[in-house]
Amino acid sequence: MSDRISINDLKRMLVEAARCLRENNELLSELDSVCGDGDHGTTMLRAAEQLEAAAGDVSLESPAALLKDGGWKLLSIDGGASSALLGTFIGGMGDAAGEADLDCRSLAIVFEAGMKALFKQTKARPGDKTMVDAIAPAVAALKQAADAGATIADALEQAAAAAARGAESTKALVARYGRAKFQGDKTLGHADAGARSIALLFHGFSQAFQEQAEINHGG
Questions:
Q1: What are 168-203's pLDDT values in tens digits?
Q2: d(CA 134, CA 138)
Q3: How many of the other CB atoms lie within 10 Å of CB of 78?
Q4: What number of other Cβ atoms are within 10 A of residue 49's Cβ?
Q5: For every residue of the chain, which 3-state class applies, written as one string?
Q6: Quick one: which of 149, 150, 148 has its CA closest to 210?
Q7: Between 186 and 62, residue with greater pLDDT
Q8: How many angstroms separate the CA atoms of 11 and 3, rounded?
Q9: pLDDT (0 to 100) of residue 188
Q10: pLDDT, tens digit (0-9, with 9 covering 90-100), for 140-155
Q11: In 10 A of CB 218, how many CB atoms?
Q12: With left for phi above 0 and alpha for psi between -120 and 50, is residue 137 left, alpha or beta?
């Protein structure tokens, strides 16, 4: 079997990411209650619904169509900056995805395109205690793994681990964007809810492809 991601693989990745967000929505709201409105988990529940809706749309037959549709669905959520930025990230991935199955290098390019689209919409960068603190290291890890010739499953696993470390690192940061910035040093010691959401998203991506890889190889 060639190491590629098909449209069906991508749909499974979105579904698994949605499951991870749904199962952790209370934790996300708890984190958000420290520095924000406390509704981030609720927003991510709605995001999960939209990711599942995109994955369940049989009319979407290419990676580009799926990711662009998923991005637009997320942008339709009235969930403040987090859903808008997440939608921009996913939609931006679609702009680079194309019509064919993705190998590891093209997958890394797709994720990098999503991050570049995100950077056009926000001035937040690593160190500002936002979802960017999880996205940037995840994308970098994915690219590094792809350049080293890793399998897609391994590359996604490394990206998920990097996203988790990035989210954890936000505990040592002071928020500089959103409502949290008004809390100043009170945000120290608490992980950013948006960054944790991204870590869950990448964990779902990784889990879905690893499970499918095991099935395909008779594991």
A1: 999 999 887 766 666 667 677 889 999 999 999 999
A2: 6
A3: 8
A4: 15
A5: CCCCECHHHHHHHHHHHHHHHHHCHHHHHHHHHHHCCCCHHHHHHHHHHHHHHHHCCCCCCCHHHHHHHHHHHHHCCCCHHHHHHHHHHHHHHHHHHCCCCECHHHHHHHHHHHHHHHHHHCCCCCCCCCCHHHHHHHHHHHHHHHHCCCCHHHHHHHHHHHHHHHHHHHHHCCCCCCHHHHHHHHHCCCCCHHHHHHHHHHHHHHHHHHHHHHHHCCC
A6: 150
A7: 62
A8: 17
A9: 79
A10: 999 999 999 999 999 9
A11: 5
A12: alpha
> By mean pLDDT, which of 19-33, 46-60, 118-132, 202-216 is the weakest?
202-216
So what's the architecture of 7-216 in CATH? Answer: Alpha Horseshoe (1.25)
What tokens does 31 get? 């984190």
Helices 104-121 and 80-97: crossing angle, nearest 10°?
140
